[in-house]
Amino acid sequence: MAYETINVEVQDHVCQIKLNRPEALNALNSELLSELCTALEEADASDKVRCIILTGSEKAFAAGADIKEMSEKSFTEVFSTNLFAGVNDRVSAIRKPIIAAVAGYALGGGCELAMLCDFIIAADTAKFGQPEINLGVIAGIGGTQRLTRFVGKSKSMDMNLTGRFMTAEEAERAGLVSRVVPAKKLLDEATAAAHKIAEKSLLTAMAVKETVNRSYELPLSEGLLFERRVFHSMFATEDQKEGMAAFLEKREAQFRDK
Ligand code: CO8
Question: What keywords sit in the KW lines (predicted)?
């Protein structure tokens, strides 16, 4: 499918989706969000894709929701259309792993979109922030909720109340990003990580994603039970037999997603 505000490329089982509104630092307008959700759903459904990378430009992953588009909206309109609920639900429903490769600004909805991915690899130029308070609003798709779970209350309050930006180094220390790499190597590192994931059984990778995400929804005892039951269920798969046999026979596993 042809898109106006994103570029999509599939190579070696990895789908790279690049946000592409350079004139607005990849601000997330309704067209971009709709195209992004459709592209993610297409990748999720495609036999050719085993892992997804979401990225932006060198200057901006995304500088937030599109302020021009939002500025004239009324309460009635945003409430009755449940603005941004669909994006949260559609991105959360993707079952294949999504890596956010972030360089430059990831602000407001940009930071929230990165947090909706499964993990974040940051360039050393990345800047994360929830500056919505400067616009007289608050975060709307995870900036007060997911960010607090990732970095703790104190830092989340700091980010949401002062609107200051976090460097990549601080974001790694705080647990928001999994690794920081030189900006020039960002896509190579993200692609290498995606290829590593793509080599695994897709069934198992999806089970990992579903189970880790449950840890945010469940108390520990229920989370552990869910994990154990999913672990047990993997013994019904051919990939479990193959993975363990390959280890014992000292060879590479040939997973078949069965
Ligand atoms: N919306 C619309 N346009 C934007 C946005 C934005 N969020 N950010 C930048 N732009 C535009 C600018 O208006 C400018 O356009 P023009 O050239 O036509 O004037 C162009 O991008 C370049 O921007 P700057 O000239 O400002 O570039 P600087 O390098 O001087 O500054 C900054 C970069 C610091 C990133 C600055 O642009 C900035 O502060 N942007 C706004 C950041 C912000 O407040 N983000 C939060 C938005 S609110 C939000 O995200 C609510 C989340 C709700 C959920 C979202 C669900 C997906």
Answer: Fatty acid metabolism, Isomerase, Lipid metabolism, Lyase
